[in-house]
Amino acid sequence: MMYVNAGNANMRQTSNIVVLLVTTWAFVVCFAVWMMFGVTGIPIRKELGLDATQFGLLTATPVLTGALFRLPLGIWTDRFGGRIVMFVLLLLCAVPVWVSSYAVALWQLLLLGLALGLVGASFAVGTPYVARFFPPERKGFAMGVFGAGTSGAAINMFVAPLIITHYSWHVVPRVYAVALVVTAGIFWILSAPDPLLGGSAPSFGKQLAVLKDPRVWKYCQYYSIVFGGFTALSVWMPQYFVQEYGLGITAAGLLAACFSLPGGALRALGGWLADRFGAHNVTWWVLWAAWIALFILSYPQTELIIHTIRGQAHFHIGLPVWGFTMLAFALGVAFAAGMASTFKYIGDDFPREMGIVTGIVGLAGGLGGFLLPILFGAIRDWIGINSSCFMLLYGIVWVSLILIYVTEVRRMPVMGEMPAGSAYGKVVTAARKGEAA
């Protein structure tokens, strides 16, 4: 009997791994499609004569829809199950992706971008779906593996430039639309029904009640920078290499992948670190690492003239392309660990409300990914400095560091009273008892 039970447990574990892998692959494809305009936007910008602000709007439009629909899709995942929601989403989004290949004006691309941007909401479907197949001590790792699907941004930077070079940008969305349909079929065959579904679904009112918890909004701020910053830079980096260093689209895509690839592939490592050392510790040091990297990346190319007793001494200060790429890689690693640690917080604090909390936190991250490229373009058009995008992110990370210091490092409940049963609430309660003594 013990042998049979052990065999059943091994079979369940294997099945859970298969679900995790096929769902992660679905997210990889979705994320590649979501970031499509980051590469195809370069020839489109030249073809339509777009300025930096219009280019930022083009690349950000799909991110907006993906952000706004994360909350409703998270709620639907809790009610109907992640399997059916993910399957329908993959098939549905293939249509606007294919149609976008025939667009000839900016307004057409913007409207189709809003439609195909739904693929970005797949994150709010897959995260709670895969988490339900694993015990609490492995949720961080499981969500980290699934989150590695953001490496689809790097795949887009490898695949799209090759297609554009050999054919045209119009072929890219057609290839991606076929990939969505094929992935939908593979996902349906290999996935499994949600293990915790059953009984009556909670009302929308009960689901939304969790949003009164101030921790949710704090995690939204963290995620708006680690994921929002990752998403925004993933669509901005290829043209940054083109504009700042004068590279071709293929070389720009390959170097931009040095940021996007670790930002996705190492997310599983971030989940493992969060499981081992705690979400707070990982998030705290990740933000410091990102802050330092952004400080250096922010410094523009500068020509310095010093008047000496022997005449003028000329100096050039600025990152060479290899130095910039190395720092971008480090920033991608930091953002990857930060994305995983943020959802470790959610898995620990909201195990039964993961769908809606994932939706609202993912919404905040997606809105960051939508607003930032537009701000990048507007600031660049205003002050005329390419590295101004990193200056903006530097300031936002500084706000996050202040927030985590005040609410967690100093153990001050300024965000509101924490539940007494939570880890944070226990710390606060113990501290108050000590003060009373």
Structure description:
- This protein is mainly alpha-helical and 437 residues long.
- The chain has a single domain, classed as MFS general substrate transporter like domains (Growth Hormone, Chain: A, Up-down Bundle).
- The chain has helices spanning 2-34, 37-48, 52-68, 70-80, 82-99, 106-116, 122-131, 136-147, 152-166, 171-190, 204-208, 214-245, 249-265, 267-277, 279-298, 321-349, 354-383, 388-409, 423-436; strands at residues 302-308, 311-317.
- A two-stranded antiparallel sheet has the order 1-2.
- The longest helix is centred in the first third of the chain and has 33 residues, at 2-34.
- The chain is globular, with a radius of gyration of 22 Å.
Task: From the structure above, extract its key features.
437 residues, Growth Hormone, Chain: A, globular, two-stranded antiparallel sheet, single chain, disordered N terminus, 78% helix
Would you kindly provide a brief summary of this structure?
The protein is mainly alpha-helical. It has helices at about 1-35, 35-50, 50-70, 70-80, 80-100, 105-115, 120-130, 135-145, 150-165, 170-190, 205-210, 215-245, 250-265, 265-275, 280-300, 320-350, 355-385, 390-410, 425-435, and strands spanning about 300-310, 310-315. Residues about 1-5, about 410-425 and about 425-435 have low confidence and may be disordered.
The CATH homologous superfamily corresponds to: MFS general substrate transporter like domains
Describe the sheet with the most strands: 2 strands, antiparallel
Extended strand count: 2
CATH architecture: Up-down Bundle
User: Mean pLDDT across all residues, rounded?
Assistant: 80
Rg, nearest Å:
22 Å
Report the top-level CATH class.
Mainly Alpha
Query: What structural class results from the helix and strand content?
Result: mainly alpha
- What is the 3D shape? globular
Put simply, the count of helices is 19
Oligomer: single chain
Low-pLDDT ranges: 1-7, 412-425, 427-437
User: In CATH terms, what is the fold-level topology?
Assistant: Growth Hormone, Chain: A
Strand content: under 5%
Count of the domains: 1
**Helix fraction by DSSP (H/I, runs of at least 4):** over 70%
- Major sheet: arrangement of strands: 1-2
Distance between the termini: 55 Å
What is the N-to-C order of secondary-structure elements (H for helix, E for strand)?
HHHHHHHHHHHHHHHEEHHHH
